Amino acid sequence: MAVVTEFQKIGVGLMGFGLFFLLFGVLLYFDSVLLAFGNILFLSGLTFIIGLRRTAHFFFQRHKFRGSFFFLGGVSLVLCRWPIIGMLVESYGFVLLFRSFFPMAVGFVLSALNIPYLSTYFSSSSSMV
């Protein structure tokens, strides 16, 4: 079993607050202050969870350069108070950075259909009549 350090617990909290502020900033019509605060908390939480060296290694790999450029460029646009353009650029960078993770996430979601009680709700062959 993996040991969770205190820094990782703090990082999970920071990422949670960061995602909350990002969601809240989008819901309040792209409020630039909330989006900037959410971006800063999200990136600092990621750094606390996996460490500074691994975070730098993740963002500055040769094959992820374009995704990192767009993601960090979008964060800087949000910090410069251009929230809509910044979030669009940041979203494109996010897709480029995590495109190798998406098939695994889809596989995980589809494996939830094999859970005994949950699969009865998603069964297409059963009818309610």
Automatic annotation (TrEMBL):
<dbReference type="GO" id="GO:0005829">
    <property type="term" value="C:cytosol"/>
</dbReference>
<keyword id="KW-0472">Membrane</keyword>
<feature type="transmembrane region" description="Helical">
    <location>
        <begin position="101"/>
        <end position="122"/>
    </location>
</feature>
<dbReference type="GO" id="GO:0005783">
    <property type="term" value="C:endoplasmic reticulum"/>
</dbReference>
<protein>
    <submittedName>
        <fullName>Golgi transport 1A</fullName>
    </submittedName>
</protein>
<dbReference type="GO" id="GO:0006888">
    <property type="term" value="P:endoplasmic reticulum to Golgi vesicle-mediated transport"/>
</dbReference>
<dbReference type="InterPro" id="IPR045176">
    <property type="entry name" value="Got1"/>
</dbReference>
<feature type="transmembrane region" description="Helical">
    <location>
        <begin position="12"/>
        <end position="30"/>
    </location>
</feature>
<keyword id="KW-1133">Transmembrane helix</keyword>
<dbReference type="GO" id="GO:0000139">
    <property type="term" value="C:Golgi membrane"/>
</dbReference>
<comment type="similarity">
    <text>Belongs to the GOT1 family.</text>
</comment>
<feature type="transmembrane region" description="Helical">
    <location>
        <begin position="68"/>
        <end position="89"/>
    </location>
</feature>
<feature type="transmembrane region" description="Helical">
    <location>
        <begin position="36"/>
        <end position="56"/>
    </location>
</feature>
<keyword id="KW-0333">Golgi apparatus</keyword>
<keyword id="KW-0812">Transmembrane</keyword>
<dbReference type="GO" id="GO:0042147">
    <property type="term" value="P:retrograde transport, endosome to Golgi"/>
</dbReference>
<dbReference type="InterPro" id="IPR007305">
    <property type="entry name" value="Vesicle_transpt_Got1/SFT2"/>
</dbReference>
<dbReference type="Pfam" id="PF04178">
    <property type="entry name" value="Got1"/>
</dbReference>
<comment type="function">
    <text>May be involved in fusion of ER-derived transport vesicles with the Golgi complex.</text>
</comment>
